[in-house]
């Protein structure tokens, strides 16, 4: 028998083939394109060839459409599980972003599903059905395939506590050690579907990111024998590799690719051969059945995106993302203004999340806002010390390196995953980086209200809730330091700001300097 483990991951709500930059945009990705390829890969389905489709998480958040459904049209939320049913998904995994709109909303998104959601390392105090299955066992012609579902344990570090009330995210390695031996007794083939990635290079075993528990795919395969295949996600990488002889895939993001692991199983029900592959979807037409489900709400959302908000006096478009991060930018300054206006603080920080952020055109619509501010962040106000702030700025300063007298981005922020969103720029303080100095000792000026910030000086700062919880390896921040949080998404706060400031000046800030 040949088993085909076909997976999507990190679709992030890109259901139709568009990036929403324009109403007529046609993008080379989407779940609807992936569906056509999945249909082709699953066409052969018989006693000798067994296709199994798995969605590996981060499905219901990440695009303007997901925001529109969550905030404007809750009745459309079952669409996600309806689409998964159309793709004949047989197991679903929770991604970290599944929890961004709370558990009631997540339950609504999954209300039409014909497949189990797997949550081996999620303990639920309320024993909800949605989190009750650690694994599923599928059987055909006497061959049993067990699928164990794991979610990166870092959810509790990032997510708003009220969104995950009653849930406890356990260590994925310990969870795999608990369940894999059991599944080896119950099934012939053991598959781990993990919404997490690889923390080491699959060829050299060199550490490729901080060993903080966010991504532990290699650790699982190193410490837990008996796994026949692993499906990964979360890092948005395109991977088809073997780790310790085990096939591993990861299909990128936004439905750009579909991953497949082929396992040959002999008459003794043992895996004799395996092959990991990843296929691009760009040359496949969107599936008509999926588009019929997607189109009505997508059309409504397109109309909504064209809602006018205000006017920019000057240039707030981001023309060069590295230069914007190096010298600050009017768009970044504007976002910090919105944060400070919402919370009443006079220090705020934000990131230029990725190199696709366009900034804002002269006549601002919701489309521009949602294409530039792509996360459903909420704000938190923290009281920290001057020493905390300096440590945070040193973390920011590590984003840059000097190479042949030119400033480049530290590869740590580029591989194995693009992480521009970890680098913040602050308003309300005056500060300077000296890139000729060693990492950890680059902040050579830090002033607040005209005086040098003292290590024990208390400061109140506005951050997004991800950073406020220490996300991005900012241990100087933490939930224990949060004074209060705002319940409103940043995109709404931006729209509200335009309601009271219909004309906004694009001002180049001068509070931040870099020497090199």
From TrEMBL:
The keyword Nucleotidyltransferase does not apply. One of its GO terms (biological process) is nucleotide catabolic process. One of its GO terms (cellular component) is outer membrane-bounded periplasmic space. It comes from the Bacteria. The keyword Nucleotide-binding applies. One of its GO terms (molecular function) is hydrolase activity. Residues 323-477 form the 5'-Nucleotidase C-terminal domain. Residues 5-237 form the Calcineurin-like phosphoesterase domain. Keywords: Hydrolase, Nucleotide-binding, Signal. SUPFAM superfamilies: 5'-nucleotidase (syn. UDP-sugar hydrolase), C-terminal domain (SSF55816), Metallo-dependent phosphatases (SSF56300). Belongs to the 5'-nucleotidase family. This is CpdB protein.
């Amino acid at each position: 028998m040949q088993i085909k483990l076909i997976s999507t991951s990190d679709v992030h709500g890109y259901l139709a083939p568009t990036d929403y930059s324009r109403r007529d945009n046609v993008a080379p990705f989407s779940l609807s394109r992936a569906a056509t390829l999945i249909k082709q890969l699953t066409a052969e389905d018989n006693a000798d060839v067994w296709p199994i489709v798995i969605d590996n998480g981060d499905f219901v958040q990440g695009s303007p459409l997901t925001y529109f459904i969550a905030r404007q049209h809750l009745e459309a939320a079952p669409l996600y599980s309806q689409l998964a049913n159309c793709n004949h998904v047989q197991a679903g995994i929770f991604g970290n972003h599944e929890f961004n709109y709370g558990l009631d909303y997540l339950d609504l998104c999954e209300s039409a599903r014909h497949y189990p959601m797997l949550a081996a390392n999620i303990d639920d105090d309320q024993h909800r059905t949605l989190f009750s299955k650690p694994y599923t066992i599928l059987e055909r012609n006497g061959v049993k395939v067990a699928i164990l579902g794991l979610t990166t344990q870092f959810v509790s570090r990032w997510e708003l506590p009220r969104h995950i009330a009653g849930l406890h995210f356990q260590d994925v390695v310990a969870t795999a050690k608990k369940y894999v031996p059991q599944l080896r007794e119950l099934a012939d083939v053991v598959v781990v579907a993990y919404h997490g990635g690889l923390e080491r290079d699959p060829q050299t075993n060199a550490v490729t990111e901080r060993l903080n528990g966010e991504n532990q795919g290699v650790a699982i395969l190193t410490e837990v024998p008996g796994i026949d295949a692993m499906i990964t996600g979360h890092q948005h990488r395109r991977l088809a590799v073997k780790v310790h002889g085990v096939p591993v895939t990861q299909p990128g993001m936004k439905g750009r690719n579909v991953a497949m692991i082929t396992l040959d199983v002999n008459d003794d029900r043992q895996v004799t051969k395996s092959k990991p592959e990843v296929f691009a979807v760009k040359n496949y037409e969107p599936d008509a059945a999926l588009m019929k489900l997607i189109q009505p709400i997508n059309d409504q959302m397109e109309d909504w995106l064209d809602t006018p908000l205000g006017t920019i006096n000057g240039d707030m478009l981001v023309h060069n993302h590295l230069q914007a991060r190096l010298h600050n930018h009017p768009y970044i300054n504007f976002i910090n203004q919105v944060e400070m206006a919402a919370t009443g603080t006079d220090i705020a920080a934000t990131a230029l999340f990725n190199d696709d952020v366009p900034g804002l055109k002269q006549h601002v619509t919701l489309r521009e806002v949602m294409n530039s501010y792509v996360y459903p962040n909420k704000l938190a106000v923290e009281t920290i010390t001057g020493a905390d702030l300096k440590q945070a700025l040193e973390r920011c300063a590590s984003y840059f390196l000097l190479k042949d007298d030119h400033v480049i981005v530290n590869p740590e922020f580029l591989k194995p995953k693009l992480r521009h969103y970890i680098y913040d720029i602050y308003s309300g303080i005056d500060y300077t980086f000296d890139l000729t100095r060693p990492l950890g000792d680059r902040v050579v000026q830090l002033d607040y209200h005209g005086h040098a910030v003292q290590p024990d000086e208390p400061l109140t700062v506005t951050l997004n809730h991800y950073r406020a919880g220490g996300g991005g390896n900012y241990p100087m921040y933490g939930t224990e330091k949060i004074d209060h949080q705002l319940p409103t998404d940043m995109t709404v706060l931006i729209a509200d700001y335009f309601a009271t400031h219909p004309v906004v000046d694009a001002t180049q800030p001068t509070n931040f300097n870099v020497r090199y």
